[in-house]
Amino acid sequence: MAVPNTPQHYIECEMCEENCLYHCNSCYVRLCEKCRETHKINPYTKAHDIASNDVLDDIQDDVTKAKKMIDETRRKLKLETEVVKREIETALSEKMAQLEKIEKDTLEDLYTQSKAMTDYISYLNGLAKKYQFKLANKDPEYLVRNEAEEIKPIPRTLKPAYPTVIAGTFYKADVLRALSKIVPNVSIEKRNIRRLYSQKTLSHLQFLKQNQRDMINPRPGKRWKMSNFVTEARGITVQGMKNILHVSKDNANRFWVSEFGGNLVQTDIKGNRLWSISISGTGGACHTVTMHGNLLFVGKENNIIYKISDDKIIKFIHSKDWTALSIYASYRNEDILVGMIKDNTETNDAKVTRYSKTGKKIQDIKNKCWTRILYKFPVYLTENINGDVCVSDGRREAVVVVNKAGKYRFSYTGQQSNSEFSPCGICTGTLGHILICDPKSYSIHLLDKDGLFLSLLNIGQSGLIKPCGLCVDLENQLYVGYYDSNTLTRYTLYKY
Could you tell me which of 340, 326, 429 has the C-alpha nearest to residue 386? Predict the structure, then answer.
């Protein structure tokens, strides 16, 4: 088999490009281990249904159980081995005691024999002296005849009986029989794996496919109205406003609404005016609310971003010689995105800059990507759940999407070639769908995270015809502001 020239690549996480281990059934995003944890704790996506993790968690549990069981078996085998070793040591001690007794008895017997022979030699020496004395005074024959019968016999001695060692029969099998048996479990239980998509999600996918088929081959006389994804709810009239360019919502059910000319107003759900600030009138999305409820807005200077925290206004970011048009605080990682242009707009010098939640510059998404001009006037922007940066560019009449690394992904220029597309407010839902206001067609365009057109939400039937600013909260409530009205309309997105 041929060896490939390049190594096999794993499936990438859509958030960080690491190895994908999980899949979100709710927003169809591929996730690695780290991003799955972020996805689970992020208030924007914590209710999502993440699949494949139950199998991996079961496997991890099995790994833990297997290690614990094997460690316990190892401990028991060691204990049994110690018992066998102690029995062997006991038997060895008994054998050694037996040898010590044989050694003692043998040495005592030999000592007795040695002493007897020593005594007999002394006796013979004494007898020899006696015979020498008598030999000097008497006849030798007399001595032989009369004294020889008096000599004692030589003591009897015996050689010791050495112990005989008979080798024992020692086999490995005998040792193994003495220890516990390890028998592998041959019964295999199949894991219970959930479907990758729930039935509810499958129904939704079928609906989208049908919707896409209808868009490609529309039925005669069919007019695209509000899709089944939304149901219209009551409107909120914001006191003291003439029009609405942009809207931000905090966690306390209050809104920050800006109008043409740089007037920013805080209002409650009933439309009561709570606070007003003068801000930049250059861009569209000149304000945003962080996940902790703090307001960020572009000041009248156009290059200073202020922060309101604990009712105190502080200077937060200074963009120097760049004019800030739009700002967005991410619910995904708390980063801050700012759309900017140079004062000399003839050069088409524009960019999106990423800052940390503390205001430290992290990244510049440059205006040019190879030979492509990304931005001319990034007047509205947002970040999707997969990290994509989505920008409404009024002068390009397009929505430009790049990934979190700043690499170009796609552009969206509307649905009908014979009509102008003027994208304004932009936001993303909990499923990664992209919603774009188009005041010229009196509608909101709905895309999936990869730029595929899903539906056209025609809101002209409400009597408010120029949708301009919008935001969506964690409860899938969509709030739309209109360029020719001070009414903020609320819609309920379809809950998947």
Answer: 429
Apex 111 CA angle, 110 and 113, nearest 5? 65
pTM confidence score: 0.62
65 is written with which tokens? Answer: 């159980």
Architecture of domain 226-493: 6 Propeller (2.120)
φ, ψ at 153 (rounded to 5°): -75, 160
Q: Give, as one character, the DSSP assignment of residue 154.
A: P
Q: What is the residue extent of each domain of the chain?
A: 55-178, 226-493
Phi, psi of 47 (to 5 degrees): -85, 0
Strands 312-318 and 408-412: unpaired
Cα distances (angstroms) measured from residue 93 to each of 84, 96, 436: 14, 5, 91
Return d(Cα 214, Cα 367) in angstroms, integer: 36
Structure tokens at 348: 């088409």
Q: Tell me the pLDDT tens digit for each residue of 105-121.
A: 888 888 888 888 898 88
Residue 466, Cβ density class (10 Å: 0-12 exposed, 13-18 middle, ≥19 buried): buried
Nearest C-alpha neighbor of 55 from the set 23, 101, 87: 23
